[in-house]
Amino acid sequence: SGFGGVDIGLMAAGMTPLWAVEYDADIAGVYRRNIGNHIHVADVRQVDYAALARVDWLHASPVCTNASVANADGEESMADIETAKAVVRALQAQQPRVFTLENVWPYRNFASFRLILDALGAMGYMYDFEHVNAADMGVPQTRRRLILRAVYGELLPPLPLPVPWVGWYAAIADLVPTLPE
Question: What is the C-alpha separation between 36 and 28, in angstroms, rounded?
Fold first, then answer.
């Protein structure tokens, strides 16, 4: 879950997060302060997803360290495969109507990603993935990410049209007068 960036966006769209999983207790603490106390500090590979409240929308953000272009020596690890298997277990246990995944673009070349795609197909989900620039979606940074969208029993709607880019300063301009010297 990280600090809850995806959850904050989903909440802005009118959704309510029921649970989140974060391995790092300090990061989970930031999530807790940002969003709420429904976060589980645990390794996603060890979670019993069937024991958690059923969700309509499941989101996964597997660790991207090994797939990042910033890691020139990175290659897929057993932990990446095991994490993908945990995502598949979560999908099977929760059977959400919507599933999304965010990662770095090179993740699409990992066997881990193929495991998730194969599970989605076997479970009857319609899915696609794209290389999306966050700035085109109103985020004040030009960060390109792999975005996978999957829907069960329906056709995927198109992605929203890009919005005008907003820089970081414009995004916080209303807060500047309230900041201490």
Answer: 10
pLDDT 10s digits, 130-169: 999 988 888 777 888 999 999 998 888 888 888 887 777 8
Rounded to whole angstroms, the Cα distance separating 91 from 123 reads 9
Least Cα distance to 160 among 133, 142, 141, 180 occurs for: 133
| CA atoms of 114 and 168, how far apart (whole Å) | 35
Three-state DSSP state, 41:
strand
- pLDDT band, very low/low/confident/very high, at 85 (cuts 50, 70, 90): very high
pTM over cut 0.85: yes
The values of phi and psi at residue 121, to 5°, are: -60, -45
CB within 8 Å of 25: residues ≥ 6 apart: 41
Residue type, 17: P
Task: Count Cβ atoms within 10 A of the Cβ of residue 47 and give its class: 0-12 exposed, 13-18 middle, 19 or more buried.
Answer: middle
Strand boundaries in 2-155, DSSP class E: 20-22, 39-41, 57-60, 98-103, 125-133, 144-152
